[in-house]
Design goal:
Elements lengths: L2 H11 L3 H25 L5 H17 L4 H15 L2 H14 L3 H16 L6 H8 L3 H86 L3 H28 L18 H6 L6 E4 L7 H21 L5 E9 L17 E9 L15 H11 L3 E6 L5 E8 L4
Helix pairs in contact: 2-3, 3-4, 3-5, 4-5, 4-6, 5-6, 5-8, 6-8, 8-9, 11-12
């Protein structure tokens, strides 16, 4: 594990560790600066002024993060009077790191270099002594002062450049993520448009032909049973065309959340669905049942899928549809919270058929109807059960908690 990963693991195990390390580091820095300022001012002729300047420099170190320029100015008297170099270097580094313009850092570095090269304290007698020094000593003082002013400036600007680069990398990564999401959205939009074209050009065309042929058969047929069947086929074809028109509108919506305003199937349409199913199904619906639109659509699609499966796989069987509210009891849903199951009432939709009386129709099946119903049930916090009832029939049951709808 690398160094960043090690620090991340430490921070995860002890959230207080980073703050504690910052406090310890700040305390150590202040202690080093205080030791440097107090020891360099001891024994000087301006000892009292040096001690006062040292206190001002330490106070400036406390302000250096919020007010870096003020902290740097407060460190200069200690550097000038007693050559307390640590507070000035730390304040200069912080100023160079926070300064927007590089010129301010260069000026502060030049001031620090000059004060570090001049004698301490810079009184006239000391300046005269400086003029009498050998060229070698003068050169060493200039080099030492230049290094004292240039090193913090270079480190501060380097730290600022590193932070700016990190921010730019974060922004670049966010831009790449946004671009990737945009490409995915465009790909999904192209796929939706392709599906919409296929549904409109192929499926809708075929269903229209079925409806037209059924209408013609209804008009020309002499047998009453044939006319009734043709009428049912025509009505189902027209309803299917309406559903396809709505789906094409959904697929062509500019954004996934911007669906067209065509009416969705509701609970009031359930009775017509059962009557038009062509399998003589019975409907038991609680009076005064008021549900949210997503729940009503889930009820409608569950009954629709159950009737479709009964027509395909159990022709001639008796079909019963029951929609109502029941009290939630023990073990009413697998995986419910607590031993007593979910709290509050729940909506129950049951589509049950008896044993088939004829040969099943050889119609194609996508095997995706029950998958879609289970997804609807999961989104509503409910569950779906489908399987044989042990008496030769089949039962489809949807349960949705009304308290969470």
């Amino acid at each position: 594990m690398g160094e960043p990963g090690r620090w991340a693991a430490v921070a995860a195990r002890a959230p207080w560790a980073p703050a504690a390390l910052r406090v310890l580091g700040e305390a150590g820095l202040l202690a080093a600066a205080a030791l440097d300022a107090l020891t360099t001012s001891a024994g000087e002729r301006v000892e009292s002024w040096g001690a006062l300047a040292a206190g001002v420099a330490l106070l400036g170190l406390l302000l250096r993060r919020r007010l870096p320029a003020v902290g740097f100015l407060m460190a200069l008297p200690a550097l000038s009077l007693s050559f307390a170099l640590v507070p000035a270097l730390v304040a200069l580094y912080q100023l160079s790191r926070r300064a927007e313009h590089q010129r301010l850092s260069l000026v502060a570095g030049a001031v620090t270099a000059a004060l570090a090269a001049l004698p301490t304290p810079p009184v006239p007698r000391e300046l005269l002594a400086l003029a009498s020094q050998s060229p070698r000593d003068l050169l060493l003082d200039l080099v030492y002062g230049s290094l004292a002013g240039a090193a913090p400036v270079a480190l501060g600007r380097l730290a600022r450049a590193r932070e700016e680069l990190r921010h730019q990398l974060v922004a670049l990564d966010a831009a790449h993520c946004a671009e990737r999401e945009l490409r995915e959205a465009r790909a999904l939009e192209r796929e939706r448009l392709r599906l919409a074209r296929e549904m409109h050009d192929v499926v809708s065309h075929q269903v229209s032909l079925i409806a037209v042929q059924a209408g013609a058969l209804q008009v020309t047929a002499r047998d009453e049973v044939v006319r009734t069947s043709a009428s049912t086929i025509r009505e189902l074809g027209v309803a299917t065309l309406e559903e396809l028109r709505h789906m094409v509108g959904v697929l062509r919506a500019p954004r996934p959340g911007q669906a067209p305003s065509e009416p969705q199937p509701r609970l009031r349409d359930l009775r017509h669905l059962v009557e038009a199913s062509g399998c003589g199904a019975s409907l038991e619906l609680d009076d005064g049942l008021v549900l949210e639109p997503p729940v009503e659509r889930a009820v409608y699609r569950t009954v629709q899928e159950g009737l479709t499966n009964a027509r395909k796989h159990a022709p001639g069987a008796a079909v019963a549809v029951r929609v109502g509210v029941r009290a939630a009891g023990r073990g009413s849903r697998e995986g419910a919270e607590g031993p007593e199951g979910p709290e509050g009432p729940e909506l129950e939709v049951v589509v049950a058929n008896g044993p088939r009386a004829g040969r099943p129709l050889g119609l194609p099946s996508s095997q995706m109807g029950l998958v879609g119903l289970r997804e609807r049930a999961d989104l509503l916090g409910g569950d779906l059960e489908a399987g044989a009832d042990g008496e030769g029939g089949y039962r489809l049951r949807l349960r949705v908690p009304l308290g969470g709808c």
